[in-house]
Structures are given as structure tokens and as C-alpha cells.
């Protein structure tokens, strides 16, 4: 299951190429350094009668030229590595989003359809996948060597990682950030399947217990935790006449820019919605009194993700 | 005091414990440090050996991940703060700085003694943390694992490092003032040996960076003890803030470890090539450049930690820039060997080993500075191998090179040369056997700090552990023959290697006052005569 070479992703193969270039540069320099040392060790050993000739005193020309050559090679490698890195961390807009929560010591995955898995991630091939990741406790790191990618998973943040696999197979998943005593056991598998197989898996293979769509589960939470009491059924917004309080409408919120009382303007993304739920004091929205209570400690990271999925699903003006 | 009294060797000048523990003689304090540092090196090394034992099997032979985590934390903490950071400055630096400058002592002898006591106090607190049960967070103390989740004795470890930091700061200040004020008449800046330049650059880093570490650890302790939200987002903190602050100290600290090593090598290569150091001024300014740019590269530890793309790109570029001065040094050492008369005594063998291992470590630094390559390699054994090549292959080799070079000066005794050469070669071979397989392991994706690991990594781990046995023998050899030389070694002359430098003009071992008459410096360092020129004229 651990075919290392070549990478299962296009970007990963580009990383391999960069690594190969680095390896060649290193071998060339090592050959030069070791070669010269060995040559001088033999040729200029104390007992050797070889003529030393005149000593060269002027050194600045040597120094400038080998420093410049070194810097030129370094700059080339920097550009190469930097350009690829930017692409590694800029997901395509049409990527399939899957949610990942790290916790001492397991990976909890939830698909948009509500299918949940632990220490495993099923994905379709030939389709960009974007993971939205957060942690319930300490810093973890989601690493898949076969894809040549990894990214830290931090508490209180959403970090994303994207990749597109072009071959089916099972690939190892590691946590690579020390996260406590069970760190070494926080491993899993990525199962890359063809699109039809993936859909079949989503439909019936994803665990015995019934699951519901993430947004639908979020809708239930929205009611159960009393969000609808202020924000209205369907997140249409509240006013003293309808709900008793002035609360912003949530339908159509996702992706819009929001003006805060501090004067700042922020985009309503996953992170912003999470902050509004857990630390509403820090994100007071302009035009509304800051009366929302914090739900920190009352709902898990997974439930927050479901609420976000629900709010995301609320299109402007919809009244589902 | 008569003239002859002033010539009594510093080792003969009073034999009571009190004489030693209350001494303000920089040479005796250096010896006190050598004893302490040797102890910590072997304690940290013992932890490493148990780790390599555990990793022989993919299931982990120690039986408990808890034990393994505590071992690697102990290994890291002891090695970084109680060996690598202090080693060369407080032993060789302490002993040699006044001798190389033509001075009688450091500028603040009592502060020097206080530094040793602070260091010992820190060491005892660190050992308490180990004995009480240990720390399971690794030497990097990442939050919020360390601040709120760890069950280890984190606070004791923090206190130990906090105290050790004050020892570093005091030592750094002492060297800076000494080098500014106590140079012998005629010793202009460009007549100063490179070792002192590198010590100067190191001291500047120590004085500027260590307070940041102290402050960071204090904040960590506040969060852990009082629950004040600094780093844990659940109570309003920022988990990345800790990494920024920690690496702002800890990356420059890498240069604290390696710069004095560069200095040692820059003394040894000319001495055993009987030739002037090639590109003296370039080597000097490369040290200063490393110290300055070294402060601007901490972010390269965080390419996958969740910082912005922009900052990652800037830190990558700066990291490549800091590598250039290191490359300059390697080329200049090789240039020094060109057309020399090279003698292969033990210090030179260690120095050549240093150049090879450090170059390998430096080149693999290019891999982890190249952003996209770093994403794959970081937090794997590739990084473990990379920094061990730089720190252990580099700095420890340089420390051993320096210890062998100046051993006759420090003790007045020679050691058996054949044993010295055998140890240098054993260490080089053992080191490569231990750490080269780890590059491949990292390339294949094996994460670091795993107590047990997938089966496919077993063969390479076994090879690495086998190499560790050779390496351990290599490190035990000098312990044996250097101790032997203390008792039975041949008496050394003032200048057994025929080296230049003021320290070789005093008797071995030097008298308490160093110089009967303050020397006057009339020429640049490393004025070695070419034997050929002597023969033909």
C-alpha cells in the first residue's frame, strides 16, 4: 500500500522533480568539496615533494565569484520552491470540501453528506479535494507522504489543504506534529476511489449507522441550541417584532463582506462564522447590539462545522 | 609576588576544593565547565542511545510511548541548553579568550564564576525535572500541548532553561566587553584570531536573543500555572505566537552552536596546513553576516504551521541568504589547504570530518529552505538528520577538534596520537552510519517523534541504530585516552603543533597570570612560514 515513487498527485510529482534537482545540486557540491579535500590531502600532505609554487594572496576575486555563483544557484532554487509552494496551498475554486477534526489521538472526518469516518478518508480520484481542518485540543499535522503534502491543524483555526489524486489506492496518513503520548498512533489511511465507487461508498458503504447531510444536521443544531430563537427560522434574521431581539440575517451571509463595530470589514468565511459562535464578543457586527452569548465549551468542533455547513447552505432569501 | 611565583601553572596554584570552587581564574572556570558539560553530553547521549534502542523494532522496544517521549525530551533539552549552546564558548572560549588576546583574565572574573554557578543551578533543576518523572513535550515546548495538556514536569524544565539563559547572557556580556577592552597592545580588530571573532558574533546573539526566550518561557509558565490565555485559543491565546517567539531565539541559537565551531576550524586548518588562513576578512565578515541575518530567518520553521504565503516566501529567501556566508567559510577552509603542508594529526582529522559533515548538513538545509520541498520533508526524519549533521556532525566535531588541539595547552599533557586519530575516524564513520539512513527515512515520509512506526521503515532504523553503537564507541574513546593522558601523558611543550597565536607563547599549562609580560602584537594572525622557503634559502 505504500508505493512511494512516484507521487499520486500532479503537484507531488513536481515536488519530486524539485527534490531531484536539489539532490543533483547537493551531489555536485559534495563532489567538489570532498574531491578538493581528498585531492589536497594527497597532493599537499606534509611529506609530499610536489612544488607549491607562489602563494596566491589576492582573494577578493575568488570570494566574490564563488559567493555570487552560490547566491545565483540559491536564488534559482528559491524561486522554484516558492512558486510550487504557492500552488500547493491555493485550492481551485471547484474543490470538493471535506471536513477534518484532529483530536488526541484520532482524525475525525465528515463528508458534506454527513458520512463520518475515523482515521480514514475516502476520496474520489481526478477531482480536487479541499480539506477544511481544525483541532479540538493541541496542534496536530495532517501529512500524506504519498501526496508530498502536510499542514498543521490548529485549535481555533481552519487550515485548508488541497490535492488531486490521479490513481486509486490506499495511502498512509500521519500526524507529524507532536501531540502527546499517543502521537505515534494518530495515523490513518486515505482511500482513493474512482468517482462511481466513491459515490457508491457515500451511498451505502460509509459505516453502518445512519447519517444525515451535514447541513441538515446543522439545521437541527440551529434549532436545538436556540439559534433560531434570535436569528429566525431559516436564519432570516430577527427583529423586536418577530423574535424579540435585533439579530442579523444569516441567509446569504456566507462569502459576503461584513462590517464590524470596530470599523473593520471582514469576509464571512468558515473562520468568521466559527468566531461568531464561540467568541461573539470579538466579532460584534455593526448595527446590532452585542448580546449574543458565547457557545464556547457547549458545542464541539464537529457541531460547529455542521452549523457552518447549514449557514453555508442558506441562500439569500431562502426560507427552508 | 616574585617572578617565579607568577610562573606557577594555574593547575598547581592551590589544590583544595575551595580553591577550585571559588576561583576567578578563567582557566579553572573553563575546567569546571568541561566537567559539567561532559556530564551533560553523556547524560543526553545515554537518552539518545535508549531512543535508538527503542527504534530497532517497529513496535518500540521500550514498551511505553510515555517513556520514549520523556527520553527524547530529555535528550533535546540536555543537549541543546546544557551542551550545544554553551559547549565551545564556556570551555574553549573561557580558557582561550584572555590567552589569545594577551590578557590576564576576562573583563569580569567574578561574573564568570557566577555564570558557572547559574549554569550548575540550572543543570540541577533540569536533572530534578528528569528524576521527578521527566517532560514529554519535546525540547520545542509547542503550545498548547505544553501549556495545558502535558502531564510532565514542564515548569521545572522551564525554570532550568530560564536560569541557564541568565548564565548565557552573563557569559556573552563578559566576552563582548573582554574583546573590546582587553586586547593586547598592537592587536587591532583585523589582527584578532578568527576564533575570537566568532565568539564575539556568538556573544552578540546570546545577549540579544536569550531575553526573548526567557520572556517566552515566562509567558508559557503563566499560562500553565495561572491559566492566563497567551497561547491556547480556547482561553483567548494564539498557538502560533509561541512558535514565533520560540524560534526567534532558537534559530539564532543554532548559530550560537555552530559559529564557535567555525572559529575552532579556522584556527586548526591553517595550523595543520602550515599556511595562512585564506580569505581572513571574508571569514570574519561572514561570521558577522550570519549573526545578523540569523535573526531574520526564524519563520522557516513554520512553513506548514499556518502562517501566510507571503511570510513563507520572505523567510525562504532570507534562509538562502544566510546560507551563503556558511558556503564562503567552507570554500575558504579548502582554499587554506591549497598548496599547504598538511599534517594529519587528530585535531586536523576532526576538522576535516567537520567540513565534510557540516557541508552535508548545510546542503540538506537547501532542501528544507526550498518551500515546496520543505512541505514534504519537514517534521520527518529528514529534518532530524539535517540538524544532527549540522549540530552533532558539525558542532560536536568542532568541539572535539578544539579539545584535541588545545588539550596540551590546557592540561600540559599530550594524548596518544594514534588513539586520537582512531577516535576521529570512528566518530566520522559512526556518525554517517547513524544519520545518513535518516535522510532516506524522512524522504520516505517517516514522521519524527514516533515511538512505534510502520513496518516498512524498520530496516533503515535498524541500520541507524547499528551506526549509533559505532558512534557511541567513538565518543567513549576520547573519554578513555584523554583521562589516561591526564595521568600518564607525555609533558607538552609550550607549542607542540608549531602553531601561531599568543596562547602558544605561554608555557603549557599556562601560569595563573597567563603572561609574565604583556605581549605586544606586531603582525596579523596565521603567519605560518612555508617549509620550502626555509629549505631553499
UniProtKB/TrEMBL annotation, chain A:
<keyword id="KW-0479">Metal-binding</keyword>
<keyword id="KW-0813">Transport</keyword>
<dbReference type="InterPro" id="IPR045187">
    <property type="entry name" value="CcO_II"/>
</dbReference>
<keyword id="KW-1278">Translocase</keyword>
<dbReference type="InterPro" id="IPR036909">
    <property type="entry name" value="Cyt_c-like_dom_sf"/>
</dbReference>
<comment type="similarity">
    <text>Belongs to the cytochrome c oxidase subunit 2 family.</text>
</comment>
<dbReference type="GO" id="GO:0004129">
    <property type="term" value="F:cytochrome-c oxidase activity"/>
</dbReference>
<comment type="function">
    <text>Subunits I and II form the functional core of the enzyme complex. Electrons originating in cytochrome c are transferred via heme a and Cu(A) to the binuclear center formed by heme a3 and Cu(B).</text>
</comment>
<keyword id="KW-0560">Oxidoreductase</keyword>
<feature type="transmembrane region" description="Helical">
    <location>
        <begin position="20"/>
        <end position="42"/>
    </location>
</feature>
<dbReference type="GO" id="GO:0016491">
    <property type="term" value="F:oxidoreductase activity"/>
</dbReference>
<dbReference type="Pfam" id="PF00116">
    <property type="entry name" value="COX2"/>
</dbReference>
<feature type="domain" description="Cytochrome c">
    <location>
        <begin position="213"/>
        <end position="315"/>
    </location>
</feature>
<keyword id="KW-0186">Copper</keyword>
<feature type="domain" description="Cytochrome oxidase subunit II copper A binding">
    <location>
        <begin position="93"/>
        <end position="204"/>
    </location>
</feature>
<dbReference type="InterPro" id="IPR036257">
    <property type="entry name" value="Cyt_c_oxidase_su2_TM_sf"/>
</dbReference>
<dbReference type="InterPro" id="IPR014222">
    <property type="entry name" value="Cyt_c_oxidase_su2"/>
</dbReference>
<dbReference type="InterPro" id="IPR009056">
    <property type="entry name" value="Cyt_c-like_dom"/>
</dbReference>
<dbReference type="GO" id="GO:0005507">
    <property type="term" value="F:copper ion binding"/>
</dbReference>
<dbReference type="GO" id="GO:0042773">
    <property type="term" value="P:ATP synthesis coupled electron transport"/>
</dbReference>
<feature type="transmembrane region" description="Helical">
    <location>
        <begin position="63"/>
        <end position="82"/>
    </location>
</feature>
<keyword id="KW-0408">Iron</keyword>
From TrEMBL, chain B:
<dbReference type="GO" id="GO:0016020">
    <property type="term" value="C:membrane"/>
</dbReference>
<feature type="domain" description="Cytochrome oxidase subunit I profile">
    <location>
        <begin position="20"/>
        <end position="522"/>
    </location>
</feature>
<feature type="transmembrane region" description="Helical">
    <location>
        <begin position="304"/>
        <end position="328"/>
    </location>
</feature>
<dbReference type="GO" id="GO:0015990">
    <property type="term" value="P:electron transport coupled proton transport"/>
</dbReference>
<dbReference type="InterPro" id="IPR023616">
    <property type="entry name" value="Cyt_c_oxase-like_su1_dom"/>
</dbReference>
<keyword id="KW-0813">Transport</keyword>
<keyword id="KW-1133">Transmembrane helix</keyword>
<feature type="transmembrane region" description="Helical">
    <location>
        <begin position="349"/>
        <end position="373"/>
    </location>
</feature>
<protein>
    <submittedName>
        <fullName>Cytochrome c oxidase subunit I</fullName>
    </submittedName>
</protein>
<dbReference type="InterPro" id="IPR023615">
    <property type="entry name" value="Cyt_c_Oxase_su1_BS"/>
</dbReference>
<keyword id="KW-0408">Iron</keyword>
<feature type="transmembrane region" description="Helical">
    <location>
        <begin position="113"/>
        <end position="135"/>
    </location>
</feature>
<keyword id="KW-0479">Metal-binding</keyword>
<feature type="transmembrane region" description="Helical">
    <location>
        <begin position="419"/>
        <end position="440"/>
    </location>
</feature>
<keyword id="KW-0812">Transmembrane</keyword>
<dbReference type="GO" id="GO:0004129">
    <property type="term" value="F:cytochrome-c oxidase activity"/>
</dbReference>
<keyword id="KW-0679">Respiratory chain</keyword>
<feature type="transmembrane region" description="Helical">
    <location>
        <begin position="155"/>
        <end position="177"/>
    </location>
</feature>
<feature type="transmembrane region" description="Helical">
    <location>
        <begin position="246"/>
        <end position="265"/>
    </location>
</feature>
<dbReference type="GO" id="GO:0009060">
    <property type="term" value="P:aerobic respiration"/>
</dbReference>
<feature type="transmembrane region" description="Helical">
    <location>
        <begin position="460"/>
        <end position="482"/>
    </location>
</feature>
<feature type="transmembrane region" description="Helical">
    <location>
        <begin position="30"/>
        <end position="51"/>
    </location>
</feature>
